[in-house]
Specification:
single chain, mainly alpha, about 0% strand
């Protein structure tokens, strides 16, 4: 469940970063290009993803620790995307593979 929460925060931050005019993103797919053209849709999608991920954190951990964990995960997702995005270390396939590995480890450990 925590890997899904981290993925939701990362996707939300990517949608939010998609609205920036200072960041060039030459190989956008059609959905991200549409969202970039309509910044309101992209920000609403990011807000919805942040809200769902925060609600999942609160439901798993309680109110205080859930909100704290949501803030920490949001800051981590933002840092990771800002750090790795300009160098293009991870594409969508890389993020999907990392997510599947994390979910597999989560299921094996539990």
């Amino acid at each position: 469940m925590f890997s899904t929460i981290c993925l939701l925060f990362l996707l939300g931050f990517m949608f939010w970063m998609n609205t920036s005019t200072r960041i060039s993103w030459p190989d956008k797919n059609s959905a991200m290009a549409f969202m970039a053209a309509n910044a309101l849709y992209s920000r609403l999608a990011a807000g919805a993803l942040f809200l769902v991920a925060t609600a999942l954190c609160v439901s798993l951990l309680g109110v205080g620790s859930g909100l704290f964990a949501a803030i920490v995960i949001l800051m981590t997702a933002g840092s990771v995307s800002v750090l790795f995005f300009p160098f293009r270390y991870f594409g969508s396939a890389g993020v999907a593979i990392l997510y599947l590995c994390a979910v597999t480890l989560e299921l094996v450990i539990n």
